[in-house]
Fold these 3 entries.
Entry 1:
Amino acid sequence: MSRLIDVENLTLQFDTDEGRITAVDNVSFSLEAGEVMGLVGESGSGKSVTAKSLMKLNPRNAIYGPDTNITLYLDDGPVDVMSLQTDHDMKIVRGGSISLIFQEPMASFAPAISIGDQMVEQLLIHTSFSPTQAKELSIEMLDRVGISDPKTRFGQYAFELSGGMRQRAMIAMALSTKPRLLIADEPTTALDVTIQAQVIDLMKDIVSEFGMGIIFITHDLGVIAQTADTVAVMYLGRLVEHGSVRDVIRRPAHPYTRGLLAALPTLDDIDAPLTPIPGDIPSPLERPSGCVYNTRCQEVLGPRCAREVPAFSNVSADHTAACHLHDSERDSL
Amino acid sequence: MKPLITAQGLSVHYALRGGLIGPAPFVRAVENVTIEVAPGSFFGLVGESGSGKTTLGRAMLRAAPISKGDVLFDDGEVEYSLKNLGKKDLKDYRKRAQLIFQDPYAALSPRMTVRDIIAEPLEVMGLTKSRAETDDRVRKIAAKCRLNVEHLRRFPHAFSGGQRQRISIARALVSGPKFIVADESVAALDVSIQADVLNLLKAIQEEMGLTFLFISHDLSVVAHVCDHVAVMYLGRLVETAPTRTLFSAPRHPYTKALLSAIPSLDPDDRGKAQKLEGEIPSPTNPPPGCKFQTRCPHAIDHCRVEEPILEAAGTEHNVACHKWQELSHRN
């Protein structure tokens, strides 16, 4: 496998009327080609902002930290995403080597332009295809994602398609430019379970066929277990755990990951009590000092948790967690 | 035990803007549904979007038109037939049956304080005589819903999703209802907050002796909180059973497919699910015979002609499928 993207010390703040808030705090991770990374966390944990900042898709009041470094490895050599300034420069990244699928497919298609015209438009921007070639490829992609009668669907509008169909069309559109990285932001959350299962299958087929990397953002750990190779867990803008899907789900090392799993209703034991994580996620304006999770943590070790930001330490090979529980010098608390 | 609320052959039809010739076409949103909800029960209603579960819930609150059949309500104090409810009785029924909505962000007026939001049903229904009495009832129910009484003068924007849902619950409970329809009440919440709200609903139900109709598309949530479950597909009931029976021995192919589509938490369990092809048909143009035949892997010619009716498959277990017996021997 070859390296696809390196994210180092990604820090992102927003200037708001209420003050400067930190949305992403010193997040680092890497992705290989063909890897599916699940990005998990509650609402407000900074999953979407993190993913969007890989394409610098943030509003004007966003301020990146000075140490932030995002390197995208393309065939023509590495691209330093942070150095791209104008929208024109960003073209090779946005919709070119990175595509994005949103949660709500109804909102991501323009309502008054046919699905086909939207697919062709982006191909004309990002590729050297002629309009005829672009149309042929679009119809082929619609067929690939399992849309019946793709020629008719090509001329239809978003409202004429069902939710599952729209999400398939969205995937077809995102893949037609052959991106190296696909960011899927809650792509199945708005769908029924049976349709969700179909879309998950489709995405798995696509990875094996195109060999692209996928960042799969979801709050549903079941979906992660079924799709991802690796999992990154976020809380209040910080990465708290990262590892293979088996390690993270079977041997969660961070108390927050353990809390998420305990709150999840499963069919294996329907009598098991549901244990919520106490309290709510704090407002980003009132970020706790030290470990951001210390205000809700069930396994707080002592004052050090509220004082000192825990560094990442290895729990096992390729499985890391940022928690003082796993510090080597745990005795010195 | 006598059921608290019964839907008897209940149908809800909506007229479509029709052609000029012939009778106006209509959508059978709910068709010939019979369910009995025992007092103190936590009754789950599941199905995909478009299956008619919300419409059925609303009809049981007389918030959707009853086209055929009836809904009978009997809480020991009053007996109502919802189809023929007079204005005065309907007003009284409103205080006995309430609804909790899905989206706690849309359900609360941003211009009203939490106190006013919770007090509004009392004032509209004229259930209290003085402001002091209203305040007292609001405070009591807010405390039951684990809301900080100090925060009653704040506006909803100051609260998180979980707290807002607790405000919605307090508002639904303040009139002292016996029957609550909770329509996807935890669907918009994060898992941790979802667990908290579910635990609250269960605690309140036991404490106040309430009966819930819990509408959800999430079968794992239903498995954890409900004692009975009814599965709907395209306006029809396809299976009803006690929760344990439904999850251990589902009989209808649709129920089996729904259960199997839930993503398993075991990463080594991939690809084992039996996948359902296609999507739920449009209720304006339902297929003939069994409504599930277009997606059913076991459909035979008979299924395409005759619609199956609910039949007993065990104690309190009913299923509407021509082939359930044959299929249950197979696995």
Entry 2:
Amino acid sequence: MKRLGLIVNPVAGLGGRVGLKGSDGEKVQQRARALGAVAPAPTRAAQALERLRPAAGEFELFTYPMEMGEAVARACGFEPIVIGEIASGKTTAADTQRAAREMMAQGVALLLFAGGDGTARDIYDAVGEGLPVLGIPTGVKMHSAVFGTRPESAGELALLFLREKAGLREAEVMDIDEEALRRGEVRARLYGYLRIPFERPLVQGLKAPSSPGEREAMRAIAADVAEEMEGGVAYILGPGTTTRAIASHLGLPKTLLGVDVIRDREVVALDVNEAHLLCLLEEGPARVIVTPVGGQGYLFGRGNQPISPAVLRRLGRENILVVSTAQKLQALGGRPLLVDTGDSEVDLWLCGYYRVITGYRERTIYRVSC
Amino acid sequence: MSEDITRHRYVDGKPRLRRFHQARWDEPILFELSRPGQRGILVPQVEPEIRAEVGDILATLPAGMRRREPPALPELSQPQVVRHYFRLAQETLGTDLNIDVGQGTCTMKYSPKVHEALARSPKVTELHPLQDESTVQGILEILYRFEQIMKEISGMDRFSFQPRAGSAAIYTMASMIRAYHASRGEGEQRDEIITTIFSHPSDAACARTAGFKVITLYPDEDGYPDLEALKAAVSDRTAGLMITNPEDTGIFNPRIAEFVRVVHEAGGLCAYDQANANGTLGVTRAREAGFDMCHFNLHKTFSSPHGCGGPGGGATGVTKELERFLPVPLVSFDGQRYYLDYDRPDSIGKVAPWYGVVPVIVRAYAWAMSLGAEGLREVAEIAVLNNNYLMQKVLQIPGVSAPYAKGKRRIEQVRYSWQALYEETGVHSEEIGLRAADFGVHYWTSHHPWIVPEPCTLEPTESYSKEELDEYAAILAYVAQEAREDPEKLHTAPHNSTIHRIDHSPLDDPARWAMTWRAYRRKVAEAQRPEENAS
């Protein structure tokens, strides 16, 4: 029988309702409680579990003691297999990480966790891409793309995955500096990728064929970009799975989180910083290829900071190529792509319509806003 | 007091939901019913005298055309075949059974049975496309006269009925756009077709098939086609614009004339996908909006049945300037006789054999003639009235909305969203449709991509009465209420239908999909040899 892991971060989301922009660190949690905060994690985890309830006989539920999963699982009518030990009321990031490692050792097919960006980071540190996971959105910050859109949809997706009706895709884990966020600055970097279930359309009628899988879509984009590449031009590839697909298509390595440069189908440099890019721009013509990062649709200023305002000024707008799967654009629900480079003049100049490369010989005109 | 049985399905003027259960026959497929030696008709042996006179009739066929072995057809008796198809027919929710407003974008309407009789008349069915023109003047006259009607409806100057479906017509338009630019020496340069995300997906797909790059526009914040995005898209690489209007949301593009102007100024042509013209017949014309070409689906607006995906009719019209690019042959009249005109050197050639699907054209011609010009306009008026009446009823149901163009009416269809109901109950649009089937009506979500979340598209054409629309809305209201009170009932629907749920995943899997019996047998055999596959 398949095994499902459940980890609830009991303090995730504690700071949100009381305006603390996060819940990382014991001091903040104390302050949040003093302000009357109640953690939403158990309620939201229960909303997800409700969707799994009718299929309770199809899998074994593994979870951690008490507030880290056991309590909510029992409240929802499950009889979970409880592993590990905790000091109730004093759990920390280390508990989340230990729990994730132990679940992986138990051979769970999927790890469902209730938390926010910080929890996603902890899970990533513990299991990396070794284990399919899915976040029940609970935290204050949701810049990572590893969460279901709502607790219920996380539950549904988990069920589909257990029934082998969902595929897997890589999704971004974002790292936001909470201290900076409380001062009103968003400093995000791409922290890593977790593998999450990916729902294909549930049912297709004759007139509603499913869109091709995301991997095929990325390959189509890569084929298009590769075909249009010009000799002697340095191509600066931003982070992301779509840009990585371009490098793979050319048979080249690509750092998933870094900014890399290729020219004439060869690697010039991997994981460059801003200074390095500015030097490269002195050498000859260059273009940058970026894809929206994370669930928010940020084009610049989240996770690709080496492509700085100075670099963008030097490149000019005509040398910015935007690539994105059609699915990623659709997931924005009509919201524009965003830029937040830290230089408001550059942001303004980046705004407007772009020809986003969405497939082989396919473009979508999409608006970028700041 | 006894119930008025003529009104037994209505209480206080409101529809009572139908108690319905579909037939379920658990019927195998025809090949599985086959038994060696079963047969339909035993053709008697030819008398010896005749055989002696005629000889071996098969010997007159060229050797290459003769089968070495008989075809692997299923072996069944005639009544077995009749029963098989009658059973299958009972297991559908076809247009002759249900209030068919749920298949939005498809313009489901009643095809008068008398037109069916015309199309099935031996005068039509016994024709052969290779007959001499002098012997088929009647059908050529129908093709010619129907062309005159289509010219009047669209304002275009010449039509071809050769394309056999909407997508074939769109492909024909894309091919003519290419031929036009090639004739001006810009064929290589102008390789981009612009469309909108809410145009019919065939516009993008057929342009791609014809070799163009496709540029898709997202709507502006109000859901209208985005003029600024169009301006950002056009260039000296623009070959043309291929769009639907009203779009699949039922929203009419109020800036359509500007769209056409912007594309023309960039040197592109404008093709109007009027597959579904049900809301604009006799009201607006492609000509006045400035389009260079357009097409109509005779199997939608012009009442010919869809027939399970075909055969259809994609009537394609162009302006005088583009007439020379139309497929060959065209049907012409020299004042005395009708003839097939093949002398068209700039034509894109043939897009299908012969002259179009003649029975479809006969039905469409009969439909247009029976209504007349005023009747065609009335079709549009009633269709729009029906749609806005149904929208009013549907939007009273908590949990559903009509995204974009808030507070505005729609033309002939509406793309609704059940997102609010989904968030409240966890019930998906698809499940609403599966449950609606329990009350004997068909319901469809929408084309992908689902820009509108949890979508459904309803298109009540002129064929449906107020009472039928009331019944359809009452079913949706009941099902939405049930989603709140008993969501499991929807998660497990349908309950009164032929088949509970079908696993659609093989449709995405080349190793498991099978379009023919032969492919099915091969793939089953392959699946049963895991060791071999693994090695």
Entry 3:
Amino acid sequence: MKKDLSKYNDKQLYLLVKTGNARQKEEAFAELYTRYSRGIYAYCRRILGSEDLAEDIFQETFLSFLKTTEQEREMTNVQAFLLRIARNLCLNLNRQRKTKIFSLDDFDFGIEDNRLEMSEVSKIIISALDILPEEQRESVILQVYYDMTYQDMSEFLNLPISTVRNRVTRGKQTIRQVLAPYFEKTDVKL
Amino acid sequence: MNAYNESSYTDLIYRFMDGDTSGVEQNVLFGAMAKDSELQFEFQQAVSIYKGFSADKVVLTPPASLTNSLFVSAGFKPPMPSAAAAKIGLISKFRYYTTPVLSAAVGALVTAFVFLGINSSDNTGLQNNNSSTSVTNHHELSEISASVIPFVRSSEAKNISSSNSNMIKNEEQTIAPMQECSRVFSSAENSFSLTPGVNFTQHNNDYSMLYKNDNIASFSLPEFNIMNLEIEVRGMTGLAFLPSRTIQPEPFSIMNNMGIGIKYKFNQTHSAGIVAGKESLQMYSFNKIGESYQYNHEPNLSWIGACYRWTGDEFYGTLNPYTEFTGAYSQFGPVGKATFGIAYNPENIISMSLGIEGTMLTYKFLGDLKTTEKISVVYSIGLHF
């Protein structure tokens, strides 16, 4: 009979992936995937911008995670561990490719309609993310897309909470500056 | 003394949106906003940004193909993607059966035409035979006989029939066609006298040989199976796939799930030959366009190989049990087939069969040897030469 693995905590699931039989391993991996795939995917998409690259890194993240289960290691935080793998892969990739540097002048969407749909706001926000300094962008993404608290981010990035908070706030303020012209000449449907 | 400046209020707005403000800080923020319209506008913008992020977050989910690809790469069974499940609708299911239903219909039409064609040509032959031989001469014969010889057996003469290859011949009168004549009608001459001085000659036709000639009395079908060959066209409809996966229906492909073979019949029981076909099996594949690994239908799996068929004794008249084994090669690897079924053989020239077939394909994927199996219903029509 199939166990309800949704009641298992991450550590138990990781142990099953590591030491369980083929079926247990598969089911435990599927449960962890269900829990964290959305966050990892969103993080990759927004950090890398490109859908194709994000999918590659996303896949590589989970495959690397599986490989680590073959090693002897103590798992304390699966969520952070997965994110760390994804982050390292993204950082490596970003170092390799030449990223275009955007400026505020790049943002003119030519919106004529004075009613801005939320999907359009989303598009502008996503584009505005690209002009943020790397550390601000990552902090905003971790907070918004990965649902991390400042405390979590502080531990994950190994930075003081105040620094993390400051980065998120500055990042959002920059986004607001990008959006300001549209907010002024349009009504946003909230 | 107010410890907050404009920058601090902005920070408070975003921290409030993030749920990171204490009760005191919230009071300070809303107190300031009540007096400052700029701060209100800034708050409104922050809410818009928050909602924009939320809207974006909702749509950011890993695609089903990516999930499947990842699980396959990890060596796991791909989970059922909800998007794929939604596509398996009624229309798709109907489309899934289009090919086998069409091929069955075409098979039935071909069978009907061939069967009707054979019967039609037989009847035509029969009519020709009758028309040309329906004792066109028997009236003449009987008239002659009756007028000349009162004792002639006119009733018997009326019963005479012959084929094109026959003739009626007697000493005084010959019934055409003479040239084609090979036998049959002989007459014996009996002479007797009714009146002294007058001799009558009675022509006593002996038609008994008519009944000894098979070509005259029966209309057997022409001899087929001279070469002991059979050409068989078959359709294959997948009933179950192993390992069990729920995936999207295969894309429609002309001539898919069909096969053709030519077999030599050593005798009534054993035959062997060459077969080729195209069908779909579920297998792992690599999608170059999306650069992803997937488990799906491979609709253009073409194979060619050799087969052996054992046919059992007839039962219920024209039904024969049969079993067939096929070894073939496809572009992905070797294919093995075992079929069990019943063949219906209503005429020497034509046969139809219905059976259950198991198919196994062995193929390489990511360096590993994998197998995929299918159980199908097979239906075929065969022409014998």
